[in-house]
Here is the input.
Amino acid sequence: MHPFHPRPIQPLGLTSVGEWRLKRYTIVRHTAPDSESHGEWPDFEPGRRLAHAALPSPVHAAGRVGVGFVIEHRGNGADYIVLGWWDRENELPVRVFVRDHSPGAAWRAARGSESFCVWDLQVVAFERDAYVGTVLSERASEGAVEDYLARRLTVAP
Here is the structure.
């Protein structure tokens, strides 16, 4: 086991997929080269396409407001994309996509025991609190979804 050390988490704003609005985050392992620091990662584009294709249709349905988040994580043994969207009023369906760190490895859906990790959970916990504090709040207003989208997590290196 390796001791836990915080990893930098950066919000990259919103991305639209059709009418879906997703908050984007990046997480980088401490040993990543500077060329892999936060920012646009073109090599993640095939994984993003897989994730975006997993979003349900229609965007707006009973209990579904068309928002969620996507985490792009440069990990130690693999890269991950974690997609979560709010559905059925208070549920968070999650899909995970993985690319191994081996020559020619392609993005694919997670399989077996592959899942998201403790660093991704930090974003998930923040997003849960942001959603509960806005969209599900007793004082939720007409702008609750926009308030949710405006809340972003940053963890400095």
